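Database export, one record per block. Field names are fixed; values are copied verbatim from the stored entry.
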Amino acid sequence: MRSNTLLSSLVDAIFARATPTQPIANLVRVARKLERLLAPRESRDVRKARELNIPFTMEEIIMSQVEEYNEMLVRTPLSQAQQALIKDIRRRGKNKVCRWGSRCQLFKE
């Protein structure tokens, strides 16, 4: 857990530098805020997939072949909301890949 290590090192540094004029609680609050800012951000799709307990990774959903994708949906019991989210994630992911590919083509020319 990289974030726990980062937070503990920040807290250790704060305790080492704490002065009577600056309460430790304020410094710890600042350290936690810094940790949130430094942590990698989670995309909207990843957050929604976690909330709906989607059993597949984003890479599996987006990069799988059509046959594999359809088989994943058939063999795994999913609710309508889960199926709709997976379909949206795949559509947005494929669009992102196509946009990236077309931009690469523009720069090659």
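Remark 1: The chain has six helices and no strands.
Remark 2: Residues 36 and 105 are 37 Å apart (CA to CA).
End of record.
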